[in-house]
Every structure is written in C-alpha cells, then in structure tokens.
Amino acid sequence: MKLPTKFAHLGRPDPKLGTAVNPDITRASTLLFEKAEDLYRQDIRSYGRHGSQVHDAVEDAFNTLENGAGTILTPSGLSACTLPILANVKAGDHILITDSIYGPTRYFCKGHLEKMGVETERYDPRIGGDISTLIRNNTSVIVSESPGSLTFEIQDLPAIVKAAKDKDVVTIVDNTWSAGLTYNPLNLGADISVHAATKYMGGHSDIMFGAVVCREKSMAEKIAKTRKYIGMATSPDDAYQILRGFRSLTTRFWHQERSAFELASWLSGQDFVAQVLHPALPDHPDHEIWKRDFTGGGCLFGVVLNPTSEANVLGLINGLKLYGIGFSYGGYESVAIHCDPQLNREHGPKLDGPLIRFGCGLEDANDLKHDIKQSADRVF
C-alpha cells in the first residue's frame, strides 16, 4: 500500500452509525479513574500531558512515514531538534554538529549545552567518513542535516553512520527538507530522524509542531522519558491539525517539489544568477550522493546572485508580488528570504555573491518564474 493511501486511512475510527471520519479531539488535563489502584499504573495514561487518541494517530503517521519504531511529538520544530540531543548528552560530553545545521539548533548547542558542560564542535558537512578523526572518547552525539540549512550541502550519511557506530555515538538527522518522502535517514542507519512538522505536515503556516522518529524502540523510550521529565507536551488541537495535514501531504509535497526543481533549473540560466543551490541539479557538488540516497527533492533551494549591492538584493526580494517574505517553508504560499545576515560558517568555500532562499508553495510555477523575472528586470 502506497503512502498516500496509508495517510488517508491512518487514525480513522471504525465506522458505526454516523461515525466521524477523523478521531475526536480530547481536551483534558485531569484524567479520572474508577479505581484508586489504577492511578499509578505505568501501562496507561494518567494525565492529559501524556497525550490522547489523536496523538497516537500522529505518532503512527510519522512511524509509517519513516519506518520508525517510535515517535515522540514536540510543540515546535526546534524542540524536536533539541530534545533528542538533550536526552543523549551529559556533563563532560563532546558533540559534533554539521556546520550547516539549522541556526537555532546551533545556538542551543553553543549556548545552553555549554552551560551544562557539553562541548560542541562544528564539522565540515562534506567530511563523510573522515568524521572518524573528530570523534573522541567522550563524543556522544553527531547531529547532521541534509541538505544543509541555507547552503544545501548533501552529507554522506552512510559513511558518517559507520564511523559513529564504530564508536557507539548516537546519530541525529534533521530531515525536515524532504518531509521524509524523498529521504529516509533511518533506513541509512541513523538512530533518529527529526521533523519540523510546522512546515510540510502543517501545510498552511498556521501551526507549530515537531516530531522525533527513532529507529529503535529503546531510543524512543529514552527520549520520551526526557520529554516527560521536562514537562514538554503538545496540544490535542495541534496534533489534530498535523494529522489533517498528513491526509494531503503527498499531493502538496510533490507539487511543491516539481515547482522548486522547475524554478531552480530556470534560474540557473538567468544572467543575474551565479549559482543555484539545489542538489537535484547535475552541477551541484553533491549531486551524486543525492542521487544515491534520495528519491527526489524538496520545495526549498538557494540562489547565489552575481556580486551586487545589498540594496539590489533587498530590492529584488521587495519587488516580488507572489512570494511572502518570512522564515519557514512548506506552507501553501511561496516565500523568499535574504540569507546573508544569518550565514555563519566555519567550513566550506565562500559563496561568490549574496544568497537568497526560495521556498515554493502551491502557486503555478510559471507564475512564480514571471514574478522573479519582473522584479529582476527592474533591479538589474
């Protein structure tokens, strides 16, 4: 059975007389028990923070998506990135994070974890198996993201996983870009795959949510215990919205993926563009690894402009009529941002010019092309 069919049927109640298509939203803090001896049972929920039927359905959807053994839901994409790290480190540990990691994840590691006595070291996203030279006796976690945030490097995950397993190091992959539909880190040996469900699963830019999908049940239980210790919980209303998003996920994603590739290919031939950062393009430095490990793309890519003034970069973005200016992506609307103010890299080649990131929504690709062209014609 294909994923679109599974997502259309997951979590739906058994039909009786007048049964709703979707599970009920259970809003509760206190859960009542018939017998006092049941209050402290470990095999049932005892408090509203521990979830509900609709949460179970969302967990099933993520496990189905990633072939996971267990999923932990979180209230935002960033909390999904930080929770599995927190669950697997202790004072005195050393962790490795890709230099192209999502910025707020880096800030968490360098800011919060260092106060806990955990040392963070950034590695070159193209290091591959040579990451073994950076692994120390106290290295506990390697955090990767593929493609890399903003700069879209593809990591050689099987080589990184092999080096990590040789030293008993946990591997975490931010898999938000692919929605889990074109890349499966767990099948490539990673321990944990993370999603900012805010994006594709939400689909309408009106909700924040995260998911941590684990290859082994024991890891899922470990992270779930940490979530319980720190009091992290997700609203049943939010979980319901994410489950609803799963119903149309594949239809929306494939439209956005095709639009992004079409725009990236078209932009590669424009005079004002120095380089397009999309791993599906044959001239991308990591295209061969992408072909080996991915089955498709995503809605997001980068465009390096020919050297020009910041005023021209801002003028190009401000002149767009169909693209919103804002962070995140994966919603129904296309977005564009100027990346240079947040670029923070220790490794890799310097870009030849300013970087703009485009995220494709559900608009027609030809309309999006026309919008970029009309703005570029005025600026350049």
Query: CATH first level of the largest domain: which class?
Result: Alpha Beta
Helical proportion, percent range: 25-40%
The total beta strand count reads 12
Q: Which runs of at least 5 residues are low in confidence (pLDDT < 50)?
A: none
Q: Characterize the biggest β-sheet.
A: 7 strands, mixed
Structure commentary:
By secondary structure, the chain is of the alpha/beta class. The chain has two domains: about 5-245, Type I PLP-dependent aspartate aminotransferase-like (Major domain) (Aspartate Aminotransferase, domain 2); about 250-380, Aspartate Aminotransferase, domain 1 (Alpha-Beta Complex). It has helices at about 5-10, 55-65, 75-85, 105-115, 155-165, 215-230, 235-265, 285-295, 310-320, 365-380, and strands spanning about 70-75, 95-100, 120-125, 140-145, 170-175, 190-195, 210-215, 275, 300-305, 325, 335-340, 355-360. The chain has a seven-stranded mixed β-sheet, with helices on both faces. The chain is globular and about 75 Å long. The N and C termini lie far apart (about 50 Å). The mean pLDDT is about 95.
